[in-house]
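protein-S-isoprenylcysteine alpha-carbonyl methylesterase structure dump, as promised
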Amino acid sequence: MPSPQILPMPNRHSDGTPPVVVKAKDEEDENGNDPSLSLLHSFEDKAPLPRASSFTSSSRKINGASSFYKKRRRRAASQDSFPSLPDHSAAAAYPRSPSSFGREVASETFLLTRLGFKMLSYLGVGYKWITRFLALSCYAMLLFPGFIQVGYYYFFSKQIRRSIVYGDKPRNRLDLYLPKNSNGPKPVVAFITGGAWIIGYKAWGSLLGQQLSERDIIVACIDYRNFPQGTISDMIADSSQGISFVCNNIAEYGGDPNRIYLMGQSAGAHIAACAIVEQAIKEAGEGESTSWSLSQIKAYFGLSGGYNLFNLVDHFNSRGLYRSIFLSIMEGEESLRRFSPELMVQDPNFGNAISLLPPIVLFHGTGDYSIPSDASKTFAETLKRVGATAESIMYEGKTHTDVFLQDPMRGGKDDMFEDLVGYIHSGDAEARARDAKAPPRRRLVPECMLKLAHSVSPF
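C-alpha cells r here:
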C-alpha cells in the first residue's frame, strides 16, 4: 500500500486560537478509570455563542453565557504569558529602574510557580506522584546552592537580553546570552528547552547559556507555548518562528548568521527535530515560502530527546505522564506518526528532503530512564540509513539530568559540554586554542550533594 503524501505541519488552528482545556470540578468523568481523563474537556469544538446586538431581557441569558465562555477562553489563552513583561531589545535592556526590575522578577516567579502547580494538576495526586513530588523536593533542595547562583546570574548579568519578542503569540519571547568579548561575529546556538511539553520555559537554559557564552558562543533560549495553552503543532510553530528570528536578526546582536546551530533538550529536542523535518518538507515542496532556511543551520544537536512517539507512549504512561494527556498533547493517536521524526524521514515521500537536513548529533546518557538512550541510537541509525549525516554519542551511566544539570554544576571538565563546544569550534583553530587554555568551570554544588541528587532524582 503506497505511503500517504507528507504534508507540512501548519498550526491546526487557522484563526490562531489555541485549544482550551478546562474541567469543571463537579463534572463527571466519562471513563471513570483514568484520573487524567477528568482533566481533559475541550471547548475547541464548541462554536462561540453569538453576541447580541442589544441588551434586551430576552438576550441577557445568551449574553451572560457568551461572556462567561469568553472570559474562560481569555483566562486560558493568557495563563502562561507574563502579566506585564517589558520587551527588552539590545539597546533598551539596560539600565532598568528598580520598580520595573521588581515587576519582572515577580512576573518570572509567578510563572515558574504556576508551571510547577500546573504539571502537578495534570499528573494527579496519587501515591506515585506524592512520592515523586517528595523526591523532586529533595532533589531541588540538594541543588539549591547551584540554582541560587544561576538565578542571580540570570536576573543581574548585563550579558543577558531577556524576553526579546519574536512573535505575536503568548510566550513568543527569547533570552540572549552574549559573550563579554564583542570582537567579531560569534557562533550562535538556538536552544529549545525541555519540560515534558507542559512546563518548558526559556530560563531552564540559563546554565547552558552562561557556560557557552564564556566560550565566546551566543545562546538564544527560545520560549514557546506549553500544553494546555497549545498542542505540539503550536509548540513547533512557535519554535520555528523563534529560529526564524535568530536567523534573520542575530547579526544585530553580534552573531554570525553563517554559524547558527540548533539544539534541543528532552521534549525540546523532540520539538526541534520536528521543526527541522517540517522545514525540510516545506523547502522540498514547490512554491512554499519560508522565513528561514535549513541551509542557515550548521548542525542540529539533540540532547536526551525522543524521536519515535510510538515507542514512548507506554513508557511515559508508566512514569506518570498518562496516555490520555500525552495523546492530547500530540493531537491524538492518529498524529503520532506525523510528530515522530524517526518515522517521517523513512517515508518514501521524504526522499527529496533528506539532503536538506543539517548534520545531526544526538547526545544521550545510558542511565536515562526518563527517555531511554535507545531513542537517540535508533534515530541516528535511521538517519544514516536513509542518507542523512548523523551520529549518536552516549555517556555511560549518565541520567536525564546528569548531562544537563549535575555535571555542569560539578565544574571542571564535562564531557558533553566539551563535545558540544568542540563541534561548534571545529572549523576555528583560534577558538580551539582558546578552549584548550580555558580555565576549569567553577563548582556550584558540593560533590556529596550532587551524588545525593543523582540518587533521588525523579527524572
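The longest strand covers residues 255-265.
lmk if u need the other ones
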